[in-house]
From TrEMBL:
<keyword id="KW-0813">Transport</keyword>
<dbReference type="InterPro" id="IPR027417">
    <property type="entry name" value="P-loop_NTPase"/>
</dbReference>
<dbReference type="InterPro" id="IPR051782">
    <property type="entry name" value="ABC_Transporter_VariousFunc"/>
</dbReference>
<feature type="domain" description="ABC transporter">
    <location>
        <begin position="2"/>
        <end position="233"/>
    </location>
</feature>
<dbReference type="Pfam" id="PF00005">
    <property type="entry name" value="ABC_tran"/>
</dbReference>
<keyword id="KW-0547">Nucleotide-binding</keyword>
<dbReference type="InterPro" id="IPR003439">
    <property type="entry name" value="ABC_transporter-like_ATP-bd"/>
</dbReference>
<dbReference type="GO" id="GO:0005524">
    <property type="term" value="F:ATP binding"/>
</dbReference>
<protein>
    <submittedName>
        <fullName>ABC transporter, ATP-binding protein</fullName>
    </submittedName>
</protein>
<dbReference type="InterPro" id="IPR003593">
    <property type="entry name" value="AAA+_ATPase"/>
</dbReference>
<keyword id="KW-0067">ATP-binding</keyword>
<dbReference type="InterPro" id="IPR017871">
    <property type="entry name" value="ABC_transporter-like_CS"/>
</dbReference>
<dbReference type="GO" id="GO:0016887">
    <property type="term" value="F:ATP hydrolysis activity"/>
</dbReference>
């Protein structure tokens, strides 16, 4: 579904990504872990064709992100760490705006909006202006918008920041259902290692622009914890 092959990137003369390669299959849920400034967001934005990169090949469901950008971008949804919403809109108007972009018919959008807004406990607030929402509610609204068109690939940058434990649990359960029932591929960056252990079947660790681990969560937990592995890989490459 998502294949990153030998991705490298420079900002001016400074190299910030070094020959990164990993692949995710349908139904994979992968945590992308690293310290602040390690290159998580740069890798994600490069892989999605949101910023240019200098070398490497990215394919999404068989579509090359450089030569077939429109085809590739129709397949995924991306939620950044601070989604920019039209806060003057009501929540329902924003979701209908997103549904218009993806040309969803009335029944499909209504079913999606009703189901997702109830799942994420903001159904009763959709008639209110987004500017009145808390950070957590805005995060959930952005996530609902990203899920409306049933993307094959969902990429999220720190999706659990600012969410209370109940909201985190509900979103985690929803992601797991999507992966199991619909073969949706999910990649998200996070600092919350406990969530990654419970949710993911794959984990990628990046340090200073270099991928220092990629493998199955099951293998990690068979030898210890994700925290142990993270600390070990940071020390190994210090």
């Amino acid at each position: 579904m998502l294949h990153i092959d030998h991705l490298s990137k420079f900002y001016g003369k400074k190299q910030v990504l070094f020959d990164i390669s990993f692949s995710l299959d349908p139904g994979d849920i992968c945590a992308f872990i690293g310290s602040n400034g390690a290159g998580k967001t740069t890798t994600i934005k490069s892989a999605l064709g949101l910023i240019p990169f200098d070398s490497g090949t990215i394919t999404i469901d068989g579509h090359n992100i450089e030569t077939e950008p429109m085809e590739a971008k129709r397949i995924y949804s991306y939620v950044p760490d601070n989604p920019e919403l039209y806060t003057f809109m009501r929540g329902i108007d924003y979701l209908n705006f997103i549904a218009d972009i993806f040309e969803l018919d009335y029944d499909t959008r209504k079913r999606g909006i009703d189901t997702l807004s109830k799942d994420f406990d903001i159904h009763n607030r959709l008639g209110e202006p987004i500017e009145s929402y808390s950070h957590g509610m805005q995060q959930k609204l952005a996530l609902i918008g990203a899920l409306l068109h049933d993307p094959k690939l969902i990429v999220l940058d720190e999706p659990f920041v600012g969410l209370d434990p109940l909201a985190t649990k509900k979103i985690r359960e929803h992601f797991k259902r999507m992966a199991e029932d619909c073969d949706t591929t999910i990649l998200f960056s996070t600092h919350v290692l406990e969530v990654a252990e419970k949710l993911c079947n794959k984990v990628a660790i990046i340090r200073e622009g270099r991928l220092v681990y990629f493998g199955s969560t099951q293998e990690v937990l068979a030898k210890g914890s994700l925290e142990d592995l993270f600390v070990e890989r940071m020390q190994d490459h210090a």
